Amino acid sequence: MEYISTRGSAPALDFAGATLAGLASDGGLYVPRSWPRFTEAEIAAMAGLPYAELAQRIMQPFVEGSLSPEKLLELTRAAYGRFAHAAVTPLEQFDEQHWLLELFHGPTLAFKDVALQLLGLLFEEFLGRDTQNLTIVGATSGDTGSAAIDAVAGRAKVDIFMLHPKGRVSDVQRRQMTTVLAPNVHNIAIEDATFDDAQAIVKRMFNDPAMTGRFNIGAVNSINWARLMAQVVYYFAAGLQLGAPHRQVAFSVPTGNFGDVFAGYVAAQMGLPIAQLIVATNVNDILHRALSTGDYSQGTVTPTAAPSMDIQVSSNFERLLFDVGGRDGKALAEQMAGFEASKAMQLTNAQREGAAALFTSARADADDMSHAIRWAWENCGELIDPHTAIGLHAARASGLPKAIPVVTLATAHPAKFPDAVERATGQRPELPARVGDLFDREERCADLPGDYAAIADYVAQHAVSKS
């Protein structure tokens, strides 16, 4: 399997190369040269497989040439053996049509664990084949940071520098990052910044010859293809439980950076019968505007009770625009350059029509979110976090036929956002026992200004240069 850049001019890489590189050298994102596809019979034969075995079956076409089936299965068993639920991503039923896919049973209580537990093992596997060190630089709106840090803390040949906007993540999210005191973990709180500011600094570093010439810089954000690949698996897991391939299933996905829902798009390309992918946004609604009107224009980030979605630049949307727009890397590079210069862009007709074949979208404000949290508790006895609530709001407003089950992705444990949940329900969710001492642990973090030079200098002082 070869990986090509969405902007057309970076060299093609194999899976190992794309995993370690993260962002392509031309500023684009890596995607497979073609989508592997399973037959109905092949999908039906996956029913009932343990999650680690299903993961190996789904991901094997993407890693050909870099990992044998035996090695990949070894890695998936190691990654998913750390989850607190034997099903890894269990389904819960709300009512006759609506279901909840619980993606928060990993070590840091968020869906990012499903991908990052595997990604940490992939880094270790590929770095073990040579003498290189990897310097991971990432930005987080909350959950990516803690999941990535947990996945690589203490691992050989890798350092991680995680940037988060100071004061714009929950206390639980912050502490899950800053209380990991392993020597290869470096947390950076950026003052007076948004997630988009942090992400822009990370992307700039990937394209800074002064940094890339000294360090092997890698990515854990969803710009890294391996993360999206791992997320494809739980769409198949849920679909199979609800009758696929003989029955269509719809998914409602709370998303800001578009990675989680793009994994659903990949599952559909691979043969999973998905009736609809519902993109659920909060008031930071650039994706809703893009999908409903074709207007992909950057607005001002509004802080909300769902901070992981407080984003106005959705990095992974570029992958969809590339795929549905004819896979023309040169044209997309020009389109994205225009967006980066003007902060505004209109989707082409081909892009709008291609997206509309599978995607719809919905926007939820604070009242919508609170109402969904309350509905889940009062009607189903389920506590859900604010992000999941935005997905549930969109799912219940979808108007899909009753025969099509609608699965809302539960992206975080409600105890990561206890204040919002308590305001809506009167119930304060408790942290699971395995992380119950979180607020007693020592914190370590560097506070830096939102200045590229200051952050690059910090990374350069603490990272291991190329050997």
Describe the structure.
This protein is α/β, with parallel strands linked by helices and 467 residues long. It is 42% helix and 15% strand. It has 19 helices and 15 strands. The protein has a six-stranded mixed sheet with strand order 3-4-14-9-10-13, with helices on both faces. Strands 8-5-6-7-15 form a five-stranded parallel sheet, with helices on both faces. The chain has a two-stranded antiparallel sheet with strand order 1-2. β9, α11 and β10 form a beta-alpha-beta unit. α10 packs across α11 and α16 packs across α18. The longest helix is centred in the middle third of the chain and has 17 residues. The model has no long low-confidence stretch (mean pLDDT 96).
List the defining traits of the structure above:
5-stranded parallel sheet; 15% strand; 19 helices; alpha/beta; 6-stranded mixed sheet; globular; 467 residues; 42% helix
Structural class call reads alpha/beta
Percent helix, as a range, is 40-55%
Task: Tell the overall outline.
Answer: globular
| Parts with pLDDT < 50 across at least 5 consecutive residues | none
- Provide a count of the helices: 19
| Strand proportion | 15-25%
- Using DSSP, what is the number of strands? 15
Q: Taking Cα atoms only, what radius of gyration do you get, to the nearest Å?
A: 20 Å
Whole-number mean pLDDT: 96
- Which strand order do you get reading across the main beta sheet? 3-4-14-9-10-13
Q: State the end-to-end distance.
A: 28 Å
Biggest sheet character = 6 strands, mixed
